[in-house]
Amino acid sequence: MDVDRFFRDKDLEALTLKAYDNMGLEIRDVLAKSDLHERKGKIQHAFCLGIGRKYPYDVRVLANVQPDSYWMDTMLHEFGHAAYDKHINPRLPYLLRSIAHTCTTEAIALMMGSLADDPAWLSAVAGVPEADLREGREYLLWRDRADRLVFVRWALVMFHFERALYADPDREDLNKVWWDLVERLQLVRRPPGRDEPDWAAKIHVAVAPVYYHNYVLGHLTAVQLRRYLETYITQGPFFMSEVAGRYLLEAVFGPGARDDWRTTVIRATREALNPDYFVKSLH
Ligand SMILES: [Zn+2]
Q: Is the per-residue pLDDT at 85 higher than 90?
């Protein structure tokens, strides 16, 4: 099914703004400073960057937006990081004026990014007609579950590879280590006779090392947090609620790095990180 068609005639910047407006989270200042469109010679990835720790914070997003599902997810994701960064309590001591942990900001970003695949959000916020969603609803729900399952296996490849790399950076069989893991965990066969540093094509190995476990922890936390929000705070879709935005400000963003990630999860969801919610969400 072609999910990109939902966004082909849409303004993704405007939709991102609307998504955060619905939650009472102001991102206009970040949008105004961001570099969102592709041009020759520009880095092809997307990221959010907080510059310095002086208030008001200077937070910017870099992206290469196209009107498709991938970039809708990515815009919602990166502005999730941005909303977190810009709402950290400026009265905290300098060193605590930061996120609690990479996995907590990934949780927010992943929870927001997943809206691009959420039939309820597509209907209520992105304005996708009911008739288009009727045939796509099951597929979208299936795709979201499949994405997250497949992603965990891919994250395990990254985790085990980096662990082997840092245990012995000089070992000469890294190409083999990589493909052995890909075959074992992702069930993807290596091309016959291939012995090239394919692992080096993954940008995180070079510029964001030892990062991937944060995505997995982020996925687990995102499910637990969304469930908590919708059960106890909003009693309905969190993405249509300014109360959800205020809750995130108080329970996650504001306290910055005052507590570690485990305590942050408990503060936000009233219990320790519990993978059962993630497992149940895959059923
Ligand atoms: Zn992210």
A: yes
